[in-house]
């Protein structure tokens, strides 16, 4: 059964000609040859965790399928191939001038090619030598462990991640904040509690056997375009795709993939959604409890499976059975008929994959959302068999690898013991700061030194004023990056801020590895930087971390300079990281691999007794404040809405490549997407400029754009909208609720 907008033949198509045009524009440009060479380089994609690359070639995925590059990959590589920033740029542009730049303008400054420092009292970044960097680092890290912290993103390699956590723990600190704390931490926390493993239990090969995918809170056409090829193939084999998203994303309705050029040209693209549900943001638990209730009523529960392979399943069923339809439908905003139809498709399908992104995790009850999805998979027997299971869709290309390497405040006991043996001493048991705790601690003056390996800690956080203030209380901040970003100009330390330029993934002088969102480890070949001396003065992340460690520790208890050999690092990873044994021989055998113990194709889970642990998930209590709460009077034209923030189609994390979002009809970054009924109800009209106010800040001169979004809901771009709100935090994971932010859209009376 297909529903609107699937059957609307006039509905726009995602992908297709605009993607091909973009490819042509970039590959026929002056840097086109370099771009093609890099696209074919044997290294993992710089973009999302669904990317391709590795030893099978730049365009080939782990299954050996060709034509698997996407526009996101081209965007990321093209940005890295920019020329180096000129020698005199920073001496001619003050910090106040640099703070006027947008994210896109920061990125287009070019590649960082020499180390910089901004000292207290100065208005200009100045070039310094690497020797000065190491002298500063030696003093900055020679502090009590509690006052040292790191933050990281998934742009780096497994080897750099492993060395980062080893270095920080060698100092006695567990303050290893990571960008995953702001996005998929609820997936990791929730899945570990249910199944014993916090990653996808579905491999690419397994996915190709499914006959139904439930895709929740994901805009895959924009953020994970490679996944769209798998959805197209599923529909071609008569499978069903259920989309759950408050906003209708055109690429999830119909998508034209360049990987299927004939089909795209002849038919105008492939149908994606079989059923498209638009629930109230923050109500996912109610929807999934409703699905469970309907599955019970339709006798589609796998009771014998539950008896054999799960704990506390009866409590989950009882809760769903005893929850009224009225409570469920009022909370999620969907009808009983819609939920019943969805449950029927799931219950009648043989192999169902439940996949989700940050539309599920970035909520005040993100872990409960993940529990409710896992419960639904279990009661239908869709966990522990080929073509079925749970599949969180990670955003950054190696963000999952960072967690595997131990960059986390919740270190697994077996890794803790192995690292203690390696470092020759027990690890500090003091709990470390995750990202939001780090901001709070910094604001209270508890952090003196912060080492940021990639990422944009300032802009990625909610409440940008708080983030800026918190970072300004830190004595020394090191930003390890390839290109400038907003954080380098706004997230300034009290005493000294350093920007340290490094090689990117396809430039490193040594082999590295990365991990995909489906647990596949790729080997990246050596490369060469296009930035040539005398302008360029870059080093690798591996050299940077190990040299700082050597100057602090010497050869005790490890010969840190020996760790500049990534072959040796991989042998240590093989000995200390569970499931990574094969990385110890990857250099000799060139054999990429799936991590042991993660893909579950039989109902025996990596828990203490092999059974899944189910959890009752209470319906959330959702409400909205009044206009008066925002200081807006009733006589002022306006409306209170639920705001969800997200990326545009020309964006990767906080990095903006293109200002507009043609798919959503948003011509620039200072727009708010609203339902036309809400626009009319508020007394506004499309393209009118209004004010948007949250609980922490306000934006003015925002243009209204009408779009296919649920009534009562609005959408704005991240990170610009982060200034509006201080998000509620999920107490179980520490992740902020970016997807349910109360705002008031209004204008002052004339």
From TrEMBL:
GO MF annotation terms: 4 iron, 4 sulfur cluster binding; formate dehydrogenase (NAD+) activity; molybdenum ion binding; molybdopterin cofactor binding
SUPFAM superfamilies, sorted: ADC-like, Formate dehydrogenase/DMSO reductase, domains 1-3
Chain ranges of the Molybdopterin dinucleotide-binding domain: 641-742
Assigned GO CC terms: membrane
InterPro entries per record: Asp_de-COase-like_dom_sf, MoPterin_dinucl-bd_dom, Mopterin_OxRdtase, Mopterin_OxRdtse_a_bac, Prok_molybdopt-oxidoreductase
Record has Iron as a keyword: yes
Protein name per the record: FdhF/YdeP family oxidoreductase
Species of the source: Nostoc edaphicum CCNP1411
Taxon lineage: Bacteria, Bacillati, Cyanobacteriota, Cyanophyceae, Nostocales
